[in-house]
Amino acid sequence: MKRKIENLLKKKIIILDGATGTELQKKGLPAGVCPEIWCLENPAVIKEVHASYRKAGAQIVYSCTFGANSFKLAQYGSAEKTYQINRDLVCLARQSVGKKVLVAGDIGSTGQFVEPFGNLDFDEAVTVYKQQVQGLIDGGCDLIVIETMIDIQEARAALLAVKETADIFTIVSMTYEKDGRTLNGTDPVSALVTLQSLGADAVGCNCSTGPEKMLEFIAAMKPYATVPLVAKPNAGMPRLENGKTVFDMGAEEFASFAGKMAAAGANMLGGCCGTTPAHIRELAQSPALGKPLAPVRKAIGALSSSRGHLIFGEERPLVIVGERINPTGKKALQQELAEGKTAIIRRMAGEQEQQGASLLDVNVGQPGIDEVKTIKSIIGLLATISALPLVVDSSKIETIEAALRIYPGRLLINSISGEKEKIKRLLPLAAKYGAMFILLPLTDGEIPATAAGRQAVIKQIYAAATACGFSKDDFIVDCLVMAVASDAGAARETLKTLRWCTETFRSKTNLGLSNVSFGMPGRPWLNAAFLAMAQLSGLTMAIANPASTELINVKQAGDVLMAKEKSTANFIAHFSAPADSPAAPVLRADISPAEKVAIAIREGDRENIIALIEAALAASEQASSLVDNVMIPAIVRVGELYEKKIYFLPQLMAAAEAMKKALAFLEPRLAQSAQANKGKILIATVRGDIHDIGKNIVALLLRNYGFTVIDMGKDVAAPAILEAIKREKPAVVALSALMTTTMVNMKEVIDAARAAGIETPVMLGGAVVTEAYASSIGGYYARDGVEAVKVALQLING
Amino acid sequence: MGSVFFLERIPVNPPYPKIYARLGFKKKTTELTSRQKEETDISVAEALSYIALRGVWRRESIVENDGSKTEMTGDLSFVSSQLAKYLRDCQETVLLGATAGNMIMDKIKEKTAQGNLSAAVVYDATASEMTDAALDWLIDYLAVQLRRENKKLLPRRFSAGYGDFELSNQKMICEKLQMDKIEVSITPSFILLPEKSVTAIAGICR
Asked: How many structural domains comprise chain A?
């Protein structure tokens, strides 16, 4: 049957059915019931729907089993009937349409999120889908369709469930929003790369949008598709009318997109929500359908994550694989991995992406660690925080297998060598999961020293890979970089191998670049020079540290000189300062040392403030004069700029920190200064409230203006505040609260203080506090930190 | 009704304009040097690396809504005329929760203790906006799922602490959502811990 469908697809565009749910509703399906069980109880209705689509010209109808997985059926107390329900509904579809029309066993979402996005174990998801798949197959379906998926990982689980159950033609169809991504953030090309490599026989999209928008998704996928494409749009964009979802597009208008869909590359066409047999009839009869466009390629060198993809090609710029997520020689990362923490890895992933890496290499190998458990955890984490596809780097087959199963994209395996065990076990695994791999030309116990030796091993591994169904698109040859410190001819042999791969063998290539300079001084320059030579020899990819400026600059320059795609624009962007924000002003020589201090405070220049103060003092500025006449006016100016919104909060804080640093430096010289103490302020966040960032901002600003601040912290009870007031005798008490429920505790403090005969003024602030509330409980309101300084000055000075 | 659904990692794109706006940035008014912009962007990127968005939701049927009190399946009962008004046309509700996790809160404390408040405020704003965005994502996700059931999710959501829907209700919501499983607890004064955590109720109509 699989072959029959494949042959049919070569000859014509296959017409699929239209919506089932909305048709059933029209025929009496009540709200709130399980559609699948209702159909079994009312078989004539679902048979009528199927038959109407057959009559309309559909060549494939979907069984009414969209929600017939055990998770969904459990909501209706029927999880244990999963198998029978699926089997019987396929039987009903077959009875309705006969043998000339194909029946697709329909699979939808479980409604759960699968790890790493949710807490449903990936293998449990596969098991749940296998129950459904078995029922569909035993019911006699001709093919399987996995549809309306928004989670690529759930789509993978369903697809693997099919592939591990039977060799049956399988369509996987995702649902994209108007922005061209699923709600989980997957774009059509990334989904295509992931699903076709995992074994989907056709990939496409359904639901959510009308045909016009779906055209864009089909057109985006076609250049990279190795399988037929499927489009099943809604009858236009859904619109709410009197609280009901309405689809406006009529049958004729819907079918008018048939020609454009065919031209964009759709090989199977049908309808989703809001479409009817009339829509399918118009579609099937459309003279514009024409001949189907076959997939443009048989294989593709491409990798994907759940939110991004990388297509390899001769014209594409050199790919940098960020190498830093590797615990070798990194004690902090080793400790983090051992403790199951992730902060360093999160940071490394973000930094490498920002520095220009297109892929992230992940190696978690270290003594005493459960590598399988760790790789699952780290792969899961990176899959959700980074859009970059991953490269799994391990010498252990079990580690790679765990990563292949869990990763919601097409992974690159680093690496498969000519070692017997690797060939025997890793190649079939890579084939099952559709991964790409780095071909490492070494054999058991031998690293060929010459290019000729490496070529022989490359050919040997390629032969084995071909037997597993791989083509040259599916791997990247590592040309083996050895240290020139130990073998002066090492780099030359690597480059020879690289040129042979590029010009003769015609494969993609990779270098573990920094090995070349091991044991040598000036490593960045050796690495960069080697990279330039390799780029000229046709290098596709380098595993390197993207933080190396020399390396990245040479890569950018090499891409331009080799006329790679978009390389000039990338080069200009790389070497240009951001144009949309003003550069920091250059301090002119004619500016006085004191004015430089003022500018540093206004600019929040914490790095240079001490040096500038030293220069000002050396130029005969008095410390007290510097504070009173330069720094205080500068910080007051910052407050004004903040109030006018010319500065925002981080600028206010940076200036305050520069000021704080400057005051701390000058403190020993400030005994005589009038600014030394403007008064004592006791500050706290009141009982029950754990929010303190606002309070901390106010405390910092008050200190900068010369107040002595006693910070009691957060969640402070009234008796403790009262005791502190008696002990410290502050000039002002400042209280903060963020919540309406906790701001009432400010009153508790004020009432207790007044009852104890304490008349110290109380300043109040926080997100929910208003001027009216503050005065109603006998306090003084300050909107923010800048205003708190003014209020404090007024309260103390009158 | 009543099953709790957990989402271990919510795939939210950072809402940069909202983060900047929360920090007081005003387009065409606020003036940033390239160094200040870079510093802020680095702090946002650092904050993002410490945020682990997790979410949870459960659906309940409305049993009774008398205009001042709303009773739901799962032994849920909320006294609030504003909530009752919001839910007046609904047959169901969905309770939602999201958190940015503990790591970001630890880092905010760490930066504050180091005297680096300029980074701490950026971390704080980033965590707040990401948590809100996570709840928005859950709403969007549920809206799409409900559309296939021919149901509609009300566009806005209702949180304890607003209007006459008292913050104390957050305790029941938190318990029903089993938020302890995403490492969220609640203080005696009904504040969620870690601080960057939120709950909400949204109405579902046919």
From this structure: 4
